[in-house]
Write a structure and sequence with these properties.
Layout (H helix, E strand, L loop, with lengths): L5 E4 L2 E4 L8 H8 L3 E4 L6 E2 L2 E2 L3 H10 L3 E6 L6 H10 L9 E3 H12 L4 E5 L2 H9 L3 E2 L6 E4 L7 H12 L3 E4 L5 E4 L2 E4 L1 H12 L4 E2 L5 H11 L6 E5 L2 H10 L3 E5 L18 E3 L8 H4 L2
Parallel strand pairs: 3-6, 3-15, 6-7, 8-9, 8-10, 10-11, 11-14, 15-16, 16-17
Antiparallel strand pairs: 1-2, 4-5, 12-13
Length: about 290
Amino acid sequence: MANIYSSKSNGKTNPVRSPLEATPEHFETLRAKKAFICDMDGVIYHGNRLLPGAGQFVDWLKRENKKFLFLTNSSERSPKELMQKLSRLGIEVGEENFYTSALATARFLAAQSPGCSVYAVGEAGLLNALYDWGLTMNDMSPDYVIIGETRSYSFEKIERAIRLVISGARLIGTNPDLTGPSEGGISPACGALTSPIELSTGKKAYYVGKPNPLMMRNALKRLESRREDTVIIGDRMDTDIIAGIEAEIETVLVLSGVTAMEDLHSFAYRPRLVLSGVSDIPPAEQESE
């Protein structure tokens, strides 16, 4: 277990409740929540490595009949692919327990401009979501240029996206994350991939994923839960935690991803609890079952 946590700002110590200083009442309140919104990368796994206690945490959610949704800003994989990935890591949950920024982006575009055409830079999770919502691909004169996470990023794709945006296509990013955790360390994410297009065109992308309130409202609707009964667990202050605060949902930061304790002083807001990881959430006697 980590040391007692605190953050400093302007020479003053601002306590942030950690596993060691949180009282049993704080954990009782957290465990009594009816619905849990959880980020994935940095919370449940790093790349293809399951994080300690993640399996026991999900088992606890199911055993306690909690509603839960894995809400990820990554647009690479579809819910089915994410379900299969967790299954390979030893966690069995249904496809309905996943919601991605790709799904949120496709839904947003279908509502804004039904049947519109797009030039999309991304992986199967994004492309399939766009097709499922009735959008068509167009690399000549699209209504929108959509950027998501991809491992096939190239100068040619950036160049085409820039020219299309200059010609009038509107720029959308699936999420604003600049980086994400991986087994080998930090990797560039959607915000970093979109940045060259923004800088070259002078156009600012509209980002649909967390902390956009659209993403949080969609999550609450899918869970059929009130915000008062819900908690969001994430590893990023600038997406997960601010999304929860702005949606008035209880917030838990875990230190198993990109945010370190010393980073907290850089932010004007605080999570309700800071935990080492999701392994701290189930009661100890149930963790050992």
